[in-house]
């Protein structure tokens, strides 16, 4: 048997099976709450009357029951909360110290140059000196509560006012070396377990 059906192109004659299929697709879940409303129902943020309506509907609707089960499983999955960005990126500003006469820093590769500078912040000391080539900078990081080996692999960055950042890594003794620094002012950033130590206005000649 053919049935007349209204389409976008006008009326069209279709058989019973085609008409039933189109009708089923048109009416599929027409009275179901949308996904957002189901989510609010599961989070218990709807009013009492709306909750009662959805609960009554879900009892007889296999699709909504299945969707709610998926929501419950998702909400029950433990979520690992990442370390807060503020804590991870806590900035600790170091200040320049005046070296005491005769103070030795033998852990710094190439130590012995009188132009070494010493910076301190909390229990962290950073000793800086010229590298073996022009534009090079040697450094040694000593922390009071962290073993030197735990610093190995952490990043050191020389950030200029303009231009590219120059990067290096701490070794397992707390040493690092930056190469090819152009003359000018830099901010030196050193990643530490408890934050980022910053030496501001570090001048490289």
What can you tell me about this protein's structure?
With 205 residues, the protein is an alpha+beta fold. It folds into two domains: 2-76, no CATH class; 85-204, no CATH class. It has helices at residues 16-27, 35-42, 48-60, 62-76, 85-88; strands at 2-7, 10-15, 91-93, 95-97, 117-121, 124-130, 137-143, 155-160, 166-169, 175-178, 184-192, 195-204. The strands form three sheets. Strands 3-12-11-8-9 form a five-stranded mixed beta sheet, with no helix packed on it. Strands 4-5-6-7-10 form a five-stranded antiparallel beta sheet, with no helix packed on it. The longest helix is centred in the middle third of the chain and has 15 residues, at 62-76. It starts with a strand and ends with a strand.
Please give a quick description of this structure:
With 205 residues, the protein is α+β, with helices and mostly antiparallel strands. The chain has helices spanning 16-27, 35-42, 48-60, 62-76, 85-88, and strands spanning 2-7, 10-15, 91-93, 95-97, 117-121, 124-130, 137-143, 155-160, 166-169, 175-178, 184-192, 195-204.
Spell out the blueprint of helices and strands:
Blueprint: E1 2-7, E2 10-15, H1 16-27, H2 35-42, H3 48-60, H4 62-76, H5 85-88, E3 91-93, E4 95-97, E5 117-121, E6 124-130, E7 137-143, E8 155-160, E9 166-169, E10 175-178, E11 184-192, E12 195-204
Parallel strand pairs: 3-12
Antiparallel strand pairs: 1-2, 4-5, 5-6, 6-7, 7-10, 8-9, 8-11, 11-12
Helix pairs in contact: 2-4, 3-4
